């Protein structure tokens, strides 16, 4: 039995379970018209979901992804028990490349390959609008509507992809087949200007922030906080430095051979010459410690210092200067061993907002009251998937927007980067003192944000309308953590976000 066939048995049970959280029980998955050996046909429905949209419960029937030359087409059929207002049906949008013009709503339907750590964005035309038919679904007629969306074609050996459908739990697998695209509303693939699969990257902080790691399949960048590594004005490693360097050595050893650059940085206190010398001596100290932990024939180490010349953030406060005091390690090579983020230390106290277990949830009072629960976290293809259930507790209908308490204006990647404020990127997974952020991907680089605009493998439409009594599921996809039975999820208080913490969330291995 193929991997796709084994998972098909699980999806039937998962569909029923999700329906209890997101609306009426979906229709049974039809039996494919083709044989089991041949796989599903393009017109077969391979899974169904119910999502809240425009004040209605919208049934979504998903067909296989059809590969057509350099492109692929996802077909979904939308139906509802009643038509919705044109301006209210909002599936979700993301930002257009190189601009702040919102794309039309089909762009939030992303295909994800967790085996290769890639995300397939909706294809764009020459004006940065999604290549989809219809181009923007505003309402659902009595007989439903078929939506077809274009993407880059996955490689020939990819036979299934995950689907991020805003409003529903992240689902997989959706079969990928070759053949004719199902009949629809004249999707024009000739208008595709940009269709791409982008690498998913991870960002984590370990040992209470002493080690910060940004990793992709091709490169890893590790930042070691100098205040943990060294005493003030010293290049001698502290006893606490050993654990941080152990973490760095393990992360490097998960990669293919390559040269590791080790760069020391200081703050701007003191003169340039002193800081340059201190940064070089600190880089040399880290190289000496790493050399005792890794094979320097396989991973040659190249130390250097930048002094105060390359600050991470403006040196406008004591906190920022502490961030600028660091030693960075960079290795450009492919990952060879499926790695996990280490979990050490104790969970920090939290008094910024309500605290509850994942099963019991918490009430977050923003512009409206919402109940937030996370009954479990799932391990899917070596990643952690967290399905956050947000229920509107009031009786409001025709609401103008959804749970704005998740839409923080910030980016965990630094001040020269942007994470749009209508995403749920602020949902952080914690185990002990380790913090793990959603996988993300860079969609563009601008003069304003030279570090890039990043979208998370999480909900990019967190402001979507939820009427009283409705529940929206917001999934986040994270790196796999070291073996742990439970995790904690929290949101920090900030501009546009309200703090809460959910603890004791069980981690469940999917078959």
From TrEMBL:
Its main location: membrane. InterPro entries: Bact_OuterMem_StrucFunc (IPR050330), OMP_bac (IPR006664), OmpA-like (IPR006665), OmpA-like_sf (IPR036737). Residues 217-335 form the OmpA-like domain. This is Outer membrane protein OmpA-like peptidoglycan-associated protein. Gene3D superfamilies: OmpA-like domain (3.30.1330.60). Residues 1-19 form the signal peptide. The keyword Acetylation does not apply. It comes from Cellulomonas humilata. It holds the Pfam family OmpA.
